[in-house]
Design brief:
Layout (H helix, E strand, L loop, with lengths): L2 H19 L2 H14 L3 H7 L4 E8 L2 E6 L7 E4 L4 H9 L10 E7 L5 E8 L6 H6 L2 H4 L7 E7 L8 E10 H13 L6 E6 L2 E2 L16 H72 L3 H11 L5 E7 L4 E8 L5 H5 L5 E6 L4 E2 L6 E9 L4 H22 L5 H19 L1
Length: 419
């Protein structure tokens, strides 16, 4: 054998030893027997299978065949008959066994086999037959080329770092003629063992060169089934992974769609927030901006009746500008002092006399100021009361001409303000 074949055989032997040394084979045999007990008797033969061992042994001048583990013979062939008749007699013993399941062991009597107990180092386990073969001259009274031998590891414990094995050897001169005779009868033994009562000792003395190569169809079928199971398992795993991948991709697509919707909602919310902020800003600006009505009211009350305005402006920053005519424009600064809505009044440019009316034309600027609500309310009530009292006191003594002039002046001022 080549190097890789030797290495593979070595690994296979290690696996076999580990398998036989474990409790799993015994458990599987027990479990299979319990399951077989539930199967009807007529069906058991259909499902029964596996190796069926037969023991063939030389008994006087005849060959006897019995089932392994049984004492009585199921077939016998004497030396006196023809070879074909003897072969047919022995073949009838194997009729109830499938050829692929039939296994034959040539059983030698204990007197024909030398058996020795060996204590070997653990390193010899991996290549036990070869290690023992080198030491046959010392362990047996024969030369190595004159005997067939077999060796097996015993289950009993040995000293630390060692194990116990059994060597069985028989002369070639006694075994080879038996093998040749069985070959003439159409029987090729699968092993050569030693009788141990009705059972077999479990050691194989058959030379490796004479081991028959049998095609185990059931094992091949089992291998095909195992391969099919593995392929189906791989296919199932691949299908499961594919389905998981499809589901994951669908979830990702859904998340992307939801992300787009969420982005649009976020944009709408931002626009709503911006709109609300802009609306709040405008409302706040509108609230903070000075109102023109209080300013006009305050300005109307404080300007003299002989003064009217031609133009009035109030911008968003609270800057007031007004232009008009008055007999004495310089006194308007004092008139506007203390106003609650008008602050810092001042003239812009020079005061000029209007040639038509003879009054002084002026242009003034001021700053609109919003009074506090409490102060504004407190000042508005006395001012309104004072105005009402003054109007009530002045009304009886006012002359029609003066009243008309005053009303005309204020109406002119209101008309100018309206313009």
């Amino acid at each position: 054998m080549t190097t890789w074949q030797d290495a593979s055989q070595l690994q296979l032997d290690r696996l076999r030893r580990a398998w036989r040394g474990s409790a799993l084979p015994g458990f599987l045999r027990w479990w299979g027997g319990e399951l077989q007990a539930f199967v009807p008797v007529r069906w058991r033969a259909v499902f029964a299978g596996g190796e069926r061992w037969y023991a063939i042994e030389r008994h006087g001048d005849a060959w006897r065949v019995r089932r392994a583990g049984e004492a009585y013979a199921v077939a016998e062939a004497s030396d006196g008959g023809a070879t074909e008749d003897r072969a047919a007699s022995l073949a009838r013993a194997f009729a109830d066994a499938d050829p692929s399941d039939r296994r034959v062991a040539l059983v030698l009597p204990p007197a024909a086999v030398l058996r020795r107990r060996l204590v070997l180092p653990l390193a010899a386990r991996d290549n036990l037959r070869q290690v023992v073969g080198y030491d046959l001259d010392r362990q047996t009274p024969f030369r190595a080329e004159d005997i067939h031998f077999g060796v097996r590891e015993l289950g009993e414990g040995g000293p630390e770092g060692r194990f116990v094995a059994e060597l069985a050897a028989t002369p070639r001169a006694g075994l080879d003629p038996l093998l040749d005779e069985l070959a003439a009868l159409g029987i090729q033994p699968d092993r050569v063992d030693v009788a141990d009562g009705n059972a077999l000792a479990g050691v194989n003395l058959l030379p490796p060169a004479r081991v028959p190569r049998r095609v185990d169809r059931r094992r091949r079928l089992n291998g095909v089934l195992v391969a099919a199971i593995v392929l189906l398992a791989v296919a199932c795993m691949a299908a499961w992974l594919h389905n998981r991948g499809v589901a994951l991709q669908a979830m990702r697509d859904e998340v992307e769609a939801m992300r787009g919707d969420a982005q649009r909602v976020k944009e709408l919310r931002q626009r709503l927030t911006d709109s609300a902020g802009a609306s709040g800003f405008l409302a706040r600006k509108k609230t903070e901006a000075p109102s023109i009505l209080p300013v006009l009211e305050d300005l109307t009350r404080r300007l003299p009746d002989d003064t009217w305005l031609e133009r009035f402006t109030l911008n968003a920053t609270g800057q007031i500008g007004f232009q008009g005519q008055s007999p004495q424009a310089a006194r308007l600064i004092d008139a506007l002092k203390g106003a609650s809505t008008i602050g810092d009044p001042s003239f812009q440019g020079t005061i000029q006399t209007d040639p038509t009316s003879g009054k002084e034309r002026f242009y003034m600027q001021a700053k609109a100021q919003m009074p506090k609500p409490e102060a504004a309310g407190a000042k508005t009530a006395p001012a309104a009361a004072s105005t009402s009292s003054r109007a009530a006191a002045e009304k009886p003594v006012a002359s029609p001409a003066a009243s008309g002039t005053s009303n005309g002046t204020k109406e002119g001022a209101r008309a100018n303000e309206t313009r």
